[in-house]
Amino acid sequence: VGFDPEVKAEEFPPLFLITKFNFTIVNIGVRLYKGKDALLSLDLYSANVKVDYRQGKLAEEKGVPALPNININANISEIQAMDCMSEVDMYTKILGKQKTNESENIFDLNFEINPVSEDADSILKAKLMPHEIILSKSLLDRIVAFFSNEDHDLSNITEAASNAISSSVQDRREKIEELIASQYNMSISLELNAPLVKVLGGMDAFGTVPELLQVDFGQFTMDSDRAAGSQDSALVHDQRYDYFNVVAKNIQVQVLDI
């Protein structure tokens, strides 16, 4: 109503905020029961998603509309899993943040389309903080027994998951081929701190766990390297290649006496 194609659309500054969307989940909990007894509990706390829609950069050609700037921020404060039937009270928590990082979000993600401040088609930044996974033989036995119980028919779920994975792989392959063909330029910065996995040994006669196997999968980082192409004279004019700095460090395996 009232639209006139002859009237030029109003133009805003590139960073002018047109639309803002906020979505917050305070808590989601999942419980796994065997009869009336709880086996496992999984809780997700303070998940936030924010979307900003801005005017974006003006197109270089006249008559071509501006490319909108869309900035998506998501974070999760905490994810906890508890062994409700743990035999050792100090190891009830089987998944959670490490104590040195309790004040930070366990996961942060930023994805920006048509960024104004950087010469790229999109920017992806993600950070996963260090967290712990604590496993015991009794816990694994209970989980295996639950899912192998004849009363639980999981064949339909398994088949559906298999079909979904096959379809997803094909979709991703097609999208990657499209991105390569269009020479899509994405700037990537990832910092993923892999979990510290603690595998408890058997209990002794005093009801304590004398030792544990501790596996630290370390830290993985991946960053776009814009300067690499100019350093290799053979590839200066070949735009098919993207360059990344990839680092994996602090991987450790220890057997500890408690």
In short:
The chain has 258 residues and is α+β, with helices and mostly antiparallel strands. It contains three helices and 13 strands. The mean pLDDT is 76.
Protein topology:
Elements: E1 17-34, E2 37-54, E3 69-83, E4 93-97, E5 107-113, E6 122-128, E7 131-135, H1 137-147, H2 155-182, E8 186-193, E9 196-200, E10 211-216, E11 219-224, H3 228-231, E12 244-249, E13 252-257
Parallel strand pairs: 6-8, 7-9
Antiparallel strand pairs: 1-2, 2-3, 3-4, 3-5, 4-7, 5-6, 8-11, 9-10, 10-13, 11-12
Task: Walk me through the structure.
The protein has helices at residues 137-147, 155-182, 228-231, and strands at 17-34, 37-54, 69-83, 93-97, 107-113, 122-128, 131-135, 186-193, 196-200, 211-216, 219-224, 244-249, 252-257. Strands 1, 2, 3, 4, 5, 6, 7, 8, 9, 10, 11, 12 and 13 form a 13-stranded mixed sheet that branches. The protein starts with 16 loop residues before the first strand and ends with a strand. The protein contains three helices and 13 strands. The longest helix is centred in the middle third of the chain and has 28 residues, at 155-182. The chain is 17% helix and 43% strand. It has 258 residues and is of the alpha+beta class.
Keywords:
single chain; 258 residues; alpha+beta; 13-stranded mixed beta sheet; 3 helices
Largest sheet: 13 strands, mixed
Radius of gyration: 25 Å
Strand content: 35-45%
Helix amount, in percent? 10-25%
Q: Any idea what the shape is?
A: elongated
Derived from helix and strand composition plus strand pairing, the structural class reads alpha+beta
| Sequence stretches where pLDDT stays below 50 over 5 or more residues | none
How many DSSP-defined strands? 13
Terminal CA distance reads: 74 Å
